[in-house]
Amino acid sequence: MTETLIEAEEKVADPLLPTFAFIKRVIWETDDTFTLFVDSPAINGRLFSFRPGQFNMVYAFGSGESAISISSDPSRPSVIAHTIHKVGTVTTSLSSLRRGDMIGIRGPFGAGWPIDRAVGKDVCIVTGGIGIAPLRPAIYSLIKRRAEFGRIIILYGARSPLDLLYRVELEAWSKVPNVEVIVTVDRGDSSWKGHIGVVTNLFSYVKVESQDTIAMVCGPEIMMKFTVEELQRRGFENDQIFLSLERNMKCGIGLCGHCQLGPKFICKDGPVFQLSDVSHLLEKKEV
Amino acid sequence: MQSHDLTGSLHNHPFLKDMDQELISTLTSCASNVVFLEGRYLFHEGEDAKTFYLLRAGRVALEAGASERGQIRIQTLGPGEVLGWSWLIAPYRWHFDAYAVEQVHAFAIDATCLREKSETDWHFGYEMLRRFSEVLERRLEATRLQLLDVYGTSRGEKSEKF
Could you read off the pLDDT of B60-100 as tens digits, one per residue? Predict the structure, then answer.
């Protein structure tokens, strides 16, 4: 039955039809956040590929679909990862899946991070909470092509030490030449030896110059708003700042209008936007 | 450290960026170099706020004592930042404990000396107050953001992207 279904769906390239994918591994990153690794589904015989910052619509059978950023290394497309915050019906359903279980995937959708545009420049990545998930593929790409960029600065904030994602990667990235990783938590106890305070405080500890620098920002919108102010204080222009926005995405291809933000569809025109294109729309649910 | 060396070093601290040399010299007369070993307290809640610090190296945690929960770390401060503003406002007592998470190198500024100089040299006093106001504004902004608990889970149906 399963083979028949897969054979059937492989013949179709309809972006509204999910492709089946099997879970290869589940890693619980924190108490409420996990990463699902799936064998990359072949679509019409072609291996799945994606750009950093793109997302998939992930289907939990019996529960529904949710937009989830791809969090794996785009240069290794045979296995794709989605890091998921268990927060609603679909993600709770996905959290109960195990190795060998099947999910549906539509995608990849949307515009990604401007990696090529950052060539020859410094890159300042500011992220908070699970916002680091859509940036992880960008960081993998930047590090893989390390010689093509200047300094890479990664500022990451989480709620508490227990909520930090990708600890192993953060440690590894900090050892790459000319990559600076600074982590902070909003709440810490005496066992935590790192920074305590909001992510924007980290700008005090690193030299970020606006000239020839691209900023990539992802996290809760209020955090991004304060980060943008901090970047602008340092002379960043709106065309140097890129944000990944979150709205209620459904179709993934700009048809249904659920994620419309003024003249933009987050799913199709975004989720990554240049600030100059969306600054007047930030913090508006609908326009 | 000689006075002129101290003046030069103070001039490089971000808090004093672009400050007139004359005003830095006034500040230097109230300043000294200090080192706190890791694990030592710079000051405790309730003590007289006789000094404030311009941090040069190391990290300091501000802590509040909550009997049943022990010491709660509220914020950390590091190189280039200012530690302490209770010296500005009567009754000049610290509101938190300051703990050296790492060995700390700092300029200690004598608050009594600074208050006296601010009273007699209003230009100097205004400049210090202006710079402290900026620090307070940034701290207030950061505290508000911290209070928002922006990474907290909002249960219920919402977009589940990331």
Answer: 999 988 777 777 888 999 999 999 989 988 999 999 999 99
Q: Which positions in chain A touch B59 (Cβ < 8 Å)?
A: 195
**What is the fold, at CATH topology level, of the domain defined by A116-281?**
Rossmann fold (3.40.50)
Residue B159 lies inside a defined structural domain of this protein: no
Total count of domains within chain B: 1
The range of the structural domain enclosing residue B74 comes to: 3-147
Residue B160 in any domain: the answer is no
Domain residue ranges of chain A, discontinuous segments joined by +:
2-109, 116-281
A222 interaction partners in chain B (CB closer than 8 Å) = 145, 148, 150
pTM across the whole model: 0.88
Neighbour-count burial for B130-146, b at 16+ CB within 10 Å, e otherwise: eebeeeeebbebbeebb
List B residues 67-126 in contact with A (Cβ-Cβ < 8 A). 70-76, 78-81, 101-102
A222 touches chain B (CB under 8 A): yes
Whether ipTM tops 0.85, in short, is: no
Chain B residues with CB-CB distance to A248 below 8 A: 158-159
